[in-house]
Write a structure and sequence with these properties.
The complex is a heterodimer. By secondary structure, chain A is mainly α. Chain A has a single domain, classed as Methane Monooxygenase Hydroxylase, Chain G, domain 1 (Up-down Bundle). Chain A contains six helices and five strands, in the order αββββαβαααα. In chain A, strands 4-1-5 form a three-stranded antiparallel beta sheet. Chain A has a two-stranded antiparallel ribbon with strand order 2-3. Chain A is elongated, with a radius of gyration of 23 Å. The model of chain B has no long low-confidence stretch (mean pLDDT 81). In chain B, 38% of the residues lie in helices and 7% in strands. In chain B, helix 4 runs antiparallel to helix 5 and helix 5 runs parallel beside helix 7. Chain B has two domains: 77 residues, Methane Monooxygenase Hydroxylase, Chain G, domain 1, CATH 1.20.58; 105 residues, Methane Monooxygenase Hydroxylase, Chain G, domain 1. Chain B has a three-stranded antiparallel beta sheet with strand order 2-1-3. Classes of the chains: A mainly alpha, B mainly alpha. Chains A and B meet through helix 1, helix 5 and helix 6 of A and helix 5 and helix 7 of B. Chain B: Component of the GINS complex. Chain B: It is found in: Chromosome; Nucleus. Chain B: The GINS complex plays an essential role in the initiation of DNA replication. Chain B: One of its GO terms (biological process) is mitotic DNA replication initiation. Chain B: Belongs to the GINS3/PSF3 family.
């Protein structure tokens, strides 16, 4: 899966906006949205929020976890624990990128937030690599990692599965298998 | 799935993968061996004599490629016998178990893992140790490959891959690709449309050249 696919899935998450137009309730296949009244906050999926923002029809309200103190807390907790802590949103990386790219004027201290999220990401990726290394070193058959997000899995997934494939084939060499070789004449 | 060309990987077990280019190149590597019986008029074919009529006397040492060794190896007819190349022998095996990271696997035969797996085909009392060493080498080098491939963004990686064998290089590229895709997405370049690598070299692609 590519990062842009993970981003596409992330765009389904809901975010609060304050529109500056009015519109009755709209009925989409996925559900109903609206009604939109100027000045009144309403929850919409991110794809619509970004679109409206680009057309200057709304103002975005950052999600409650996108705040400097909260992110600092999350980052410090991530650094303390050996396992993965639950993230405020399963798509925190994608949402950060989308919201900070398109709506940074609506989000206070955008640069600090970007740095904090990146720090948390780096810590989690380092933990993932550490656990992958210990998994390979001890040749375990099964591992369980909680609280990983899709984007992290994508970034390291291909490498890890290929390496484990190779390791598996090299391991089956250890068993002196039934030699179903070509015929002897 | 999004690549223009999907390469077939090496077979890494007792059987080679017929369609894999890596395996085909790997089977060209030479093995030391001995002729068990006289081989009439084959000196030229095996690179040992100048004239077409020379034959190889019994017991002379030969260097034969793997594909030939596999074909001629037969415990009943005794045409040739093979020995292990030195990197799979006892001395080098202890080097690998001491610290596998310092070895330059590219110089030692760029197909260490594949060739080693193929050597298990010849009945040799040291086979279990060879298989174990190959596995342990892979495991110990895994960490370094992972770290270097996932951290080197937009740098010259030739120093990092110089000591890896072909299998490890493919893994390195997979890691690099994951990293590059992520960075590219983060910069916003993932949604830009670019020309496919397959058609970029076609001479007819320039729009301006097609007018008039």
């Amino acid at each position: 899966m590519e990062p842009s696919e993970a981003e596409f899935l992330a765009e389904k998450e809901l975010v609060t906006i304050v529109p500056n137009f009015s519109l009755d309730r709209i009925h989409l296949i996925g559900g109903d949205l609206g009604p939109f009244n100027p000045g009144l906050p309403v929850e919409v999926p991110v794809w619509l929020a970004i679109n409206l923002k680009q057309r200057q029809k709304c103002r975005l309200i950052p999600p409650e976890w996108m705040d400097v103190e909260k992110l600092e807390e999350i980052r410090d907790q991530e650094r303390k624990e050996d396992t993965f802590t639950p993230m405020p949103s399963p798509y925190y990386m994608e949402l950060t990128k989308l919201l900070l790219n398109y709506a940074s004027d609506n989000i206070p201290k955008a640069d600090e937030i970007r740095t904090l999220v990146k720090d948390t990401w780096d810590t989690r990726i380092a933990k993932l690599r550490l656990s992958a290394d210990s998994f390979v070193r001890q040749q375990e058959a099964h591992a369980k990692l909680d609280n990983l997000t899709l984007m992290e899995i994508n970034t390291t997934g291909t490498f890890l599965t290929q390496a484990l494939d190779h390791m598996y084939k090299l391991r089956t060499n250890l068993q002196p298998g039934e030699s179903a070789h070509s015929q002897d004449f | 799935m999004f690549e223009a060309y999907f390469p077939v990987g090496p077979g890494l077990g007792l059987e080679e993968n017929f369609l894999s280019l890596d395996d085909i190149l790997m089977s060209q590597e030479k093995l030391p061996g001995r002729a068990e019986s006289a081989l009439p008029r084959l000196a030229f074919a095996l690179g040992q004599g100048a004239g077409t009529g020379d034959s190889i006397p019994e017991g002379s040492k030969l260097e034969i490629p793997l594909w030939l060794a596999k074909g001629l190896h037969d415990s009943k007819r005794r045409i040739i016998s093979v020995e292990l190349p030195k990197i799979y022998k006892e001395a080098w095996r202890t080097v690998f178990s001491a610290d596998a990271n310092v070895v330059d696997l590219h110089k030692m035969g760029p197909y260490y893992y594949g060739f080693g797996s193929q050597l298990l085909n010849f009945d040799n009392p040291e086979n279990p140790e060879i298989a174990q060493t190959i596995l342990q080498t892979f495991i110990s080098r895994f960490r370094r490959i992972m770290d270097s491939s996932q951290n080197a963004y937009n740098e010259d990686t030739s120093a990092l891959v110089a000591r890896l064998d072909e299998l490890e290089r493919a893994l390195f590229q997979a890691g690099q690709k994951g990293l590059n895709d992520f960075q590219c997405w983060e910069k916003g370049q993932a949604s830009q449309i670019t020309a496919s690598s397959l058609v970029q070299n076609y001479g007819k692609r320039k729009f301006t050249d097609m007018d008039g």
